[in-house]
Amino acid sequence: MAKAAGFFNLSIKNILANGRSSLENARIRLLYYGLLLILGTVSVIFINQLVQNQAVMGYITGTLLICIIILFKYLTWKPDWRFVSHALLVTGTMINMVDAFLIFQQVDIISVQLVLLIVIFGFYMLGQKWGMLYSILNVVPIILFMIYSSNNLYIINFRPSHLDQATLILGVLTNFILLVFIHNHFYQAFQTNMRQLKKNSEEQGRLNSVLEAAIDKAEKSSLAKSEFLSTMSHEIRTPLNAVIGMSNLLMMSNPRPDQKENLEILKFSAGNLLAIVNDVLDFNKIESGKIVFENIRFNLAELMQNICGGQKPKAIEKGLNFVLDIDSRVKNKVVIGDPTRLTQVIFNLVSNAIKFTQQGEVHVLVELVEDRHDRVTIQFSVKDTGIGIEKENLNAIFEPFTQESVTTTRQYGGTGLGLAIVKRLLELSGVQMQVLSQPGRGSEFSFNIEFPVSTEPVVEKVIKPQEPVATEQDGESDMSHLNVLVAEDNMVNTMLMKKLFSKWKLKSSFAENGALAVEQVQYGNFDIILMDLQMPVMNGFDAATEIRKLKDPKKAVTPIIALTASALIDIREKVFDSGMNDYVSKPFKPNELREKIMKLTSGDALLNDNSQVAL
Ligand code: ADP
Fold it and tell me: Which one of 222, 335, 457, 580 is CB 3.0 to 4.6 Å from 451, fit for a cystine?
């Protein structure tokens, strides 16, 4: 509803300045000037009638004059153009009827003008519905009147008045002016609107291109950031691998106890740094939408045992009670999903639980919530009796690079990326995480995942990610009979491996790229191949595929272990797809590599060659 402009207002400015649309303003302007014009004309006619002593016409014009003054005052006080328009149209219709049927008893030029004015005014001011109604109200009686009067059926016994010439000319002139004014005014408003529309669409077009440029820039800078992070992380990983590898080598060369302690610290710190770099790489990969989920069969209970098996020693070392509770109905379930990502999620939650708990228990629960034969819903929960989280921080901890408080950073270290990765991984697969926590009492992180159940039996080779590997002292089986080929382009890594292999008394040959490795396999006799994945000329995947295609059946099945520096989560499937038998992530633990070499070169290893792999 429009705001009142003050009772004594007479100016149009005050009633236009209320933030109305241009069409509304045009309507108000039309009413204002139209009423003024009618006011002027009716005043002159009224005076003329008084001078000529025309009683009936004098009363009618006098009443009309008062009506127009009231409407004009109302408009300049409360610019309610709808009401004023209706009032004008009703008044006009009544004048039309009274003129035609009673006063003049004929359809003259003034009647025609009035009908036209009402039709145009009705449509322009009040829209189609009202315009049509007022048109019918005026046109139909006039037509009926014409039909009746032409058949001399008109029976009102009332002497018609006659307009004097001056009033007639003035009336006709005013009506013509009004007709032209209304058209002209609306045409102008229409044109202004069109210009405004054109301007708006040009402005919108300009804004769109600015927006597109901004989006483009943001996308490019986000891409540049991702690429920078990826490159940096890879670049940091390479020297870190060397640091960890070297400390492993030094550890194997019987260091003094004090040296051993320093080496432990060196190895631990480098390992920590590597974990951070891996987290950054992973997070970056998730954020840039490069994550593709796998759908492979795996034994859920076995996977959980493997993940927790690797974490349990840490908990025990801290004096914590560690419980892995797997619902008996889940025990033999083979489900279809992405074990690598599930491992990452559980691993992060369990290591946080251990990290933030000083005493008490870490409880990992795997429970069957719903079994619909071909699909199961499993609830995973990781509960601890640790430091807990304040309620107001429960959302913030899932933000990247955010920890609960500065004290957390100081006391426990970490980057604040773990939970951000967990949350995003779960969200990408449509899973919502729940957290319950009480400061000082503990926390519980839980979520439900629905898995399709596999009915086929799986002959699976389970790679145990956190499998405790035999220690150096566990017996050094003789490897001197083995001839190993290493495809590796990085000099530091080559040097490290040479030192390691000479300790193991392994015979080793080196190739700088995949193509040379394939060539060496063709002409040499190797028991096993260690294959770096990123190499110039020919990468490790292609080299492995070429080797598997060799004509000599013995050479074509030479076991291949991939050496992967790429962290992480998407490499495993590609490794097996290209025909390699296993992989170790760099920096590899010497014992892990040794074990894998031994396993693959002992007679039964090749049985597993093309078996389904599940984590
Ligand atoms: P980080 O472990 O590297 O600090 P996370 O993203 O894994 O990063 O965790 C973010 C923060 O959430 C942690 O710094 C800690 O304050 C809080 N948090 C996570 N898990 C727990 C837990 N089990 N108990 C208490 N606080 C936790």
Answer: 335
